[in-house]
């Protein structure tokens, strides 16, 4: 919405308010015209309903104001003696228009100082508690659950976090009409939780710090057109920025950096990125054993992420029509020969279950690509059962890697300039693929390309100046992370917040029947950032809680005896 549209919308709200309450203002001893003056009418109304003046501010905070309106409707009804359950339900269900009925047809009396009667505040107190929870959730601290292993070793699947909104500055909601305390989908119902109209422009409050390299960041996934997670129907959704799916990754490139990746190592301005001391990178390594010990190796080291190799009878593999079928990638199979003997051929790649069974294949117990940290790879090298361990470097990924025009892989790509607000880059057929989405989707320009001619908003353009900062996000689980390598830059207006605290952690591989073992006790009440090994503050929390209960018990006991 434009500023003029917002102004007209604001005036309509004021007119609706005036027409529905001006007689009630008079009955409260005020002037009817006071109901028509924007902002001032809200201040006067707070006096009429015996609520603090600062509540007026809450009426102008996006999302929070949606929760405040029902509170104000109920409070206004109660200020004029309409305090029954029926009155409360009608006030909320009719979106406040029940006040019109009261205003024009009922002879009501204003009750000053109504809040001196405690039992009359129950409903409005519950509503206001929801307002406070929404305020905290939207502007200060938001819960988040780790769904994938892309930051494994730092953040585990099943970690429950608190994400700070104020570290990088709280972003005001752009989607003004939405269900509180949920993201893009209403739980159980599975329906959309928001309306795309109206939309507010992007605004962020000043933060405590800037995003730095190696910060773990929660952000809205820029490329999100997912209608609903796990929905395979092919439906697309053009979502508002703040309703795009939440992702969590580590920032490895900040505005102004030149980033490249060389054999899996992130380079910033041609210097290897310095890792955080809690950061443990993972890559797939090809682990080859002397005998059939693969299952033992995996179980002993609790390794769950691996890509099996397969064996196929050599007599079958050597048939030209079968080899062509399995290696072409045209069908639901693409295999590559690793080595063979007269009996069995070992292959890597993927194949569907039907062909796997039909061809008499099996999983190799001597070789696999296993996801390992460098420390664990070194440990396995010293294992007498291991013949060799080699870091897997991907060599061919087609056009999957951003900007989808170069023969890059997830392990070797770049250099890429990460845009900085106010900086200008040259535009030509070589550079445009890097910044096309920025120009059109993120900074809302009209882009047309005819041959070698580039036009932005109708004007021939040979360069472009960025309007906001951008970041490059990656997972520590380098070979098992969907990140900026695949969809590019993260705009500043997509930043949600900074994970700061793990309050609960559940092992997804252990059933609830073993609840004590399922909880990762050593991760409870640990900080996400900081230096050195994470320390659990859970025992200190329990001691403080016991101390408080003990203090309260003896205080009450002493009061009774005296």
TrEMBL record:
<dbReference type="GO" id="GO:0004252">
    <property type="term" value="F:serine-type endopeptidase activity"/>
</dbReference>
<dbReference type="InterPro" id="IPR019533">
    <property type="entry name" value="Peptidase_S26"/>
</dbReference>
<dbReference type="GO" id="GO:0009003">
    <property type="term" value="F:signal peptidase activity"/>
</dbReference>
<feature type="transmembrane region" description="Helical">
    <location>
        <begin position="54"/>
        <end position="73"/>
    </location>
</feature>
<dbReference type="InterPro" id="IPR000223">
    <property type="entry name" value="Pept_S26A_signal_pept_1"/>
</dbReference>
<dbReference type="GO" id="GO:0016020">
    <property type="term" value="C:membrane"/>
</dbReference>
<keyword id="KW-0645">Protease</keyword>
<keyword id="KW-1133">Transmembrane helix</keyword>
<feature type="transmembrane region" description="Helical">
    <location>
        <begin position="537"/>
        <end position="554"/>
    </location>
</feature>
<dbReference type="Pfam" id="PF18936">
    <property type="entry name" value="DUF5684"/>
</dbReference>
<feature type="transmembrane region" description="Helical">
    <location>
        <begin position="123"/>
        <end position="141"/>
    </location>
</feature>
<feature type="active site">
    <location>
        <position position="150"/>
    </location>
</feature>
<comment type="similarity">
    <text>Belongs to the peptidase S26 family.</text>
</comment>
<dbReference type="InterPro" id="IPR019758">
    <property type="entry name" value="Pept_S26A_signal_pept_1_CS"/>
</dbReference>
<dbReference type="InterPro" id="IPR036286">
    <property type="entry name" value="LexA/Signal_pep-like_sf"/>
</dbReference>
<feature type="domain" description="Peptidase S26">
    <location>
        <begin position="458"/>
        <end position="504"/>
    </location>
</feature>
<feature type="active site">
    <location>
        <position position="249"/>
    </location>
</feature>
<protein>
    <recommendedName>
        <fullName>Signal peptidase I</fullName>
        <ecNumber>3.4.21.89</ecNumber>
    </recommendedName>
</protein>
<keyword id="KW-0812">Transmembrane</keyword>
<dbReference type="GO" id="GO:0006465">
    <property type="term" value="P:signal peptide processing"/>
</dbReference>
<keyword id="KW-0378">Hydrolase</keyword>
<keyword id="KW-0472">Membrane</keyword>
<feature type="transmembrane region" description="Helical">
    <location>
        <begin position="6"/>
        <end position="25"/>
    </location>
</feature>
<feature type="domain" description="Peptidase S26">
    <location>
        <begin position="121"/>
        <end position="278"/>
    </location>
</feature>
<feature type="transmembrane region" description="Helical">
    <location>
        <begin position="85"/>
        <end position="102"/>
    </location>
</feature>
<dbReference type="Pfam" id="PF10502">
    <property type="entry name" value="Peptidase_S26"/>
</dbReference>
<dbReference type="InterPro" id="IPR043739">
    <property type="entry name" value="DUF5684"/>
</dbReference>
